[in-house]
Amino acid sequence: MITAYCIRNGALQGFDVPAEGPVPPDALWIDMLRPASGEDALVEAALGIGVPTQAEMVEIEPSSRLRIENGAIYLTGSLVCRADEERPILSAVSFILVNHRLVTLRYDEPKPFRLVMARLTHGCSATLTGEQLLMELLDAIVDRAADIIEHLSEQIEALSERIFDREARTDQNQRYRALLNMIARKADLGSKVRESLVSMARIFTFLAAEGETKALSKDQKAALKSLQRDATSLTDHVSYLGDKITFLLDATLGLVSIEQNNIIKIFAVLSVVLMPPTLIASIYGMNFEHMPELALTWGYPLALIAMLVAAIVPYWIFKWRRWL
Length: 324
Prior knowledge:
It catalyses: Mg(2+)(in) = Mg(2+)(out). By secondary structure, this protein is α+β, with helices and mostly antiparallel strands.
């Protein structure tokens, strides 16, 4: 689907471009969302550029993601999508600046796009350019990453309290299984946010490099430097959160080991406590003909008492030494 945004009546208005075209000549922003076959050729013919394929967008080489070709600037970054859902994903998004117009190519719906669209469709400057629009999107992307990190930090704090809650009364096996599942989800989201920030930092560095910012004004260059600092700071913070998640994982596994050791200790104590009674029962179960105790009237109850005492004494010793 192709949506062309044009400045009309002091705001950006979106128009769906039919499969047969044409693209409006005054389109400032051409947004390609999951383009169908032939739609990329329509944009290529209208703007005289090459639109990258989905396979080219996910390549990790910087030369494939960041380049200048025939006067057009190609920028591809990874954005976190569905961060509020159980399974967030990373989706590649391409930005193409050509002749002060912006083309975006995406296969998912990142929240920053919806926010920028909602804001500009309510009002925008009549002199808005593709470069300014790109800066609006980049700023919204960094803000969204910051929001995700803040929410992730709050969730990690809550998770930490749950892990070290000594008053929990739920089944421990189910509790630890749930905690490990939650830790895995937080670690996955944190790694995706960090990867997204790294890709965006590369875009900022590429735009800020000498000779590649001719289309940007001084104010936009200053805003770009601010975005670089924000991306670096957020990357450091999410790395710290990653270390904290690793600590919580180690702590949870340590608690699981303690629980397992407690179970094993119970079996070990039972083995020691029951060993002397078993020995006494084994002796008097041999049934030899000449065993004086077999002829005693009180032999049987005395054997039972001996077995009971033999079990109580080791247990008392364990309690006295605080091994239990």
